[in-house]
């Protein structure tokens, strides 16, 4: 088993190193072959491991591979913890990654930095696997930072585009805030539990359930609450929860394949994975759970709203991702970890599908991403259209599709939750279903229905409100050929992802949510066991049960409204936007998070920096300390240099003097 | 004062006196000769300590070989003593101070308080038939065989180092090749050329 | 004792080394300048064979041979393997340089092998005699090597200084040993430590002898104020010799210190650790500060050596297994980086032009990005920048110092390291941001390029995975 796991992790790394370091030697084809083979091996073995755990009941594997160092009894190790949770994540990560690798061959076919791109995404796969397979906090943090790094590199992949650089800097800085909390959380674990190993920490945690610490002033905080919230701050950064969500929409500056892989399917779910993995800790702090629940629900609803008015195809999907991540987080808050993870899995498939299909549309549109220029694409890109529709149905929770099961389970679970904030969360999540359906079908109808792509008609005038420079740059000319279906390397992954988007929910809901799949992996305190209150009689029964609840009808309503507004009476939308212009403005400014950050943090930091620079740096440090010490060091150096005369007898005399000094000091005194 | 004690002090005083003369003489040849005297006295001291073999080795090796060689070198090199002395005089005061302090410390630490007979009892005298040299040989070839071998290696390295630093092949120098000298044949040296007598000279 | 193959197993590496060195000496006589490759090859084979034999004879137990003259224990195993490995690197780097200078002679290899033998003897010395003789074997070979380029006036001068000062230091060391012998009545280090532990020896005399012994050790390491020879000798010697002198003998000096101070005078650690504190702080200060004023790379690296010695001494100051382990780790790591650093200088040197000044490093990245990358790693390691191994070396030493409640010492060390980082970073800046002054293509043989790559990557990999080496160093001291 050890070797299999090591191979799973190292194969993508090897591919990445070959494609990256020897990019000139291997060439473009070499780069994609080495990385695809690496990830392919990893994917195949992950399926094998998954099979062993899911069907053959293999025992939990918790082994240390390498002891990095031991400092004061604190062991820092590299090790693998593989149980069913890990196995599921491994399959999701490697499968989506493999699809994205293949898809990239088509998407990036004419781009520069082809090898670099493959090297990065293979490196990402390695980092993500390190993250999910870790058995200790240190390696978790390594993976956490490594995926963040690759994400940063990929968002800024178009290094010459200013918006991309802005976006990756933003992602980097916002993640620093989250990671700061995260590492404080890890430090608190190490400090109070004296270990970095998961299992040891989980064993010691119950004894500390009532422990308190004084952080500030005289208030005693519950230790577990503190640890959990600090760790969750990390998750908020990585999984883009309010208010640390601002980087995710901007991250769409990166190429579409990575939007699918990193910013939809895998990396952003690391936070959900982490909280689920830490369920033994979270169960000890109801305060932390409430906090998680409220943040998640808030994100789920309010980010969905913004999605309604976006005009960039990728941004719509991005806001939808934010909203869905909110659902997952809310599930965790309601202690329905299994539901959160279940949604994570289904979402990984259908959101990757949506992103890749959107990318396919973008290829068809010659890299124009503005949906107002699109329309009627279903005629030109049938495969893309059908797969996109499947993805959309899965997303809104059409009965029987993957998303239906997971989302319904979450809403039910939150409904049964009795912790503080659960009512608030329930209503937001429920309304979120309507919003989801609305923006999803708005996107679908605008892009695939209606009149043909706008560029192909004369006298168009594109007014880009989002200042999206790319749309302008890639403005196609009239005599370009009509959009046509993308090549097979693009469509095959779409089809392959469409299959699980339809069936995975039906297949997996039984064992994962109500069966024994996560037994022994997730810990749920009896009073929080919301999932077990849902009465479950098979997947088909769940569909019937869903049909009796409000969520399905809300989704249908959303879809209908979208159909009516955006295909029948397009002027309703503009009318509404005019009449309720203040709402529109609030949404358009994304509730002002960005401008607030720009003004307060960026501006404030700059002001502070300026003051510190002039008063502290220039006057004090440069003037007195740096130049002063540099001067004195230089002076000292030049003086001592003269002692080195080059005369032998001086040297000998120095030895004698040294002898005399030591003798007098140690013997005679 | 026993005769032995008298001999000890005699040798010791002569040794120190000779040592002082070595570093104060103007003429380097005199210095070398005083050094020879110092060695003789040291050998005498060792003799008193029953280290006969070492005493004889000191005289044979140092006086007999090393010092004679040294004398040759000193006589062949033209050393400008005056120049050396100038530096000596200039640094003498500082050196003197350091030396005096050092000597004082040595006396304090190594004086009779710590090295007297009560802390180190005098060893027993060996009988007249005791063979010092044989004992030394036994110790060297059993107990200290490893060190002995290393010392041999050091000598080998000394030879290699000396040769590597001094041996040069000058292209202009002519060398004899004994092998070809021995292997020479008569016909290589003497060639008989038959000529017809010249007619009508 | 019985002398047969089985009981001699622990000492096999030394026996093999001696035999092979003599073989190389004889074989070389029959070679011409064109076939001298054989000498080189045989030398490498000898070193590798000695490594293999050492590994074969290695084990966790302590074996004593020749009436206590010879000791084989995990410490000696680690030390021998480390110093022989470093010597392999040195031999590979040196060849090109010697060829270009026209001093590619067999004696270089013979002397180097004998020097390595001397170091091995020191590494497993069990009494004063073997310590001293091993030291002299090393020193004598080194004197000859420093003067190896006979036409170089600088080289001869350096050798002369080294020889005279070395003789003085040896004299002091020997005097100190005689005092310890006088006080304890034994030459055997293990027996001596028992006598000291039993309190049967006069303490003042012991400390008196100890001062001389510490000075002898400090001289070999090149600690302030016994460091004066270091810059002059490093500068004067041919770069290939500086490379040797600056790397492997540091491990031998560590052996000297560990045998004499820890094995022999362990009971006096309260005294010698105070002495080492003084020497360490002085070395850190002088080494780092004076290095800044240097324009000559070899001199700069010489002062950098002095500052690193300060760190090694800090490990000794703790006087426990943890500290010794940290110091050993530091020494091995330093020897590895020093070999790489000087090795690069030999690669940069061309016929008639020695790469000596900092200007020669300018624009290295333009001339050879790969070599510049390796040098970057090596300089980072010397400066102690993570993730290179130099960071961990410093960390472990500081950890050991902090563990024995000498936080102020750790702060002093860190302070001077920061000053030291300046000149390493300046060299890096020159490599990457300045225009090259010399734009001759860099000629280096395949083997030295490979060795350089292995060396540089080892610095990085050991930094990412320091445990194996650390474990070897720690378990050697039972920690």
Question: Shape of chain B from CA axes?
Answer: elongated
Strand content of chain A: under 5%
Q: How many strands, what sense, and barrel or not for the largest sheet of chain B?
A: none
Give the termini distance of chain A in whole angstroms: 66 Å
**Overall 3D geometry of chain A?**
globular
**How confident is the prediction overall: mean pLDDT of chain B?**
85
- The stretches of 5 or more residues of chain A where confidence is low (pLDDT under 50) are 457-479
Task: Report Rg of chain B.
Answer: 29 Å
Q: Order of strands across the biggest sheet of chain A?
A: 1-2
Structural class of chain A: mainly alpha
Largest interface, counted by CB within 8 Å of the partner chain's CB: A-C, 28 and 40 residues
Secondary structure layout plus pairing:
The complex is a heterotrimer of chains A (669), B (201) and C (479).
Chain A: H1 2-21, H2 23-54, E1 61-71, E2 74-82, H3 84-107, H4 114-133, H5 137-155, H6 162-193, H7 198-204, E3 212-216, E4 219-222, H8 223-238, H9 247-250, H10 256-265, H11 270-277, H12 279-282, H13 286-308, H14 313-333, H15 337-364, H16 377-380, H17 382-396, H18 402-416, H19 422-448, H20 469-473, H21 488-514, H22 538-547, H23 550-568, H24 570-579, H25 581-588, H26 593-643, H27 648-668
Antiparallel strand pairs in A: 1-2, 3-4
Helix pairs in contact in A: 1-2, 1-4, 2-3, 2-4, 3-4, 3-10, 3-15, 3-21, 4-5, 5-6, 6-8, 8-11, 8-13, 10-15, 11-14, 11-15, 13-14, 13-19, 14-15, 14-18, 14-19, 15-17, 15-18, 15-21, 17-19, 17-21, 18-19, 18-21, 19-23, 23-24, 24-25
Chain B: H1 3-24, H2 28-48, H3 52-76, H4 81-110, H5 112-115, H6 132-141, H7 145-166, H8 178-182, H9 186-189
Chain C: H1 12-29, H2 37-57, E1 63-65, E2 70-72, H3 74-101, H4 106-123, H5 128-146, H6 153-184, H7 189-197, H8 203-221, H9 229-236, H10 239-246, H11 248-264, H12 269-292, H13 297-317, H14 321-348, H15 364-367, H16 369-383, H17 389-403, H18 407-433, H19 446-464, H20 467-476
Antiparallel strand pairs in C: 1-2
Helix pairs in contact in C: 1-2, 1-4, 2-3, 2-4, 3-4, 3-10, 3-11, 3-14, 3-19, 3-20, 4-5, 4-11, 5-6, 5-11, 6-8, 6-9, 7-11, 8-11, 8-12, 9-10, 9-13, 10-14, 11-14, 12-13, 12-18, 13-14, 13-17, 13-18, 14-16, 14-17, 14-19, 14-20, 16-18, 16-19, 17-18, 17-19
